[in-house]
């Protein structure tokens, strides 16, 4: 019971962190991967579902992810000028 309360308080103090699942499109940098995230959203006027893609720079400390991997990333504090995400796990190779 106390573990559950402890995890709730740490999550509240850090706030809700966004998570995204995407494909690694580049791993040429050291400890950094580029993840392409595709969201399916309705068009503002016509309401047809369209795809929106966005690139995120994520911190990969151990160099686990390679190009083509499906990964989960989480929002974190700024690590560098463009890195604001961290690799959580590699879902598929």
Care to describe what's here?
With 93 residues, the chain is mainly beta. It has a single domain (16-92), classed as OB fold (Dihydrolipoamide Acetyltransferase, E2P). Helix content is 14%, strand content 49%. The chain is built from one helix and five strands, in the order αβββββ. The chain has one helix at residues 2-14; strands spanning 19-26, 32-42, 49-59, 70-75, 83-92. The chain has a five-stranded mixed beta barrel. The chain starts with a helix and ends with a strand. 12% of the residues are buried. The model has no long low-confidence stretch (mean pLDDT 90).
What descriptive keywords fit this protein?
5 strands; 93 residues; 5-stranded mixed beta barrel; 1 helix; mainly beta; globular; OB fold (Dihydrolipoamide Acetyltransferase, E2P)
Q: Indicate the CATH class.
A: Mainly Beta
- Major beta-sheet overview: 5 strands, mixed, barrel
What gross morphology would you assign? Answer: globular
State mean pLDDT (0 to 100 scale): 90
Number of strands: 5
Unreliable spans are none
Q: Taking Cα atoms only, what radius of gyration do you get, to the nearest Å?
A: 16 Å
Beta-strand portion reads: over 45%
Count structural domains. Answer: 1
Any chance you could write out the topology, listing elements then pairs?
Elements: H1 2-14, E1 19-26, E2 32-42, E3 49-59, E4 70-75, E5 83-92
Parallel strand pairs: 3-5
Antiparallel strand pairs: 1-2, 1-4, 2-3, 4-5
How is this structure best summarized?
The chain is built from 1 helix and 5 strands, in the order αβββββ.
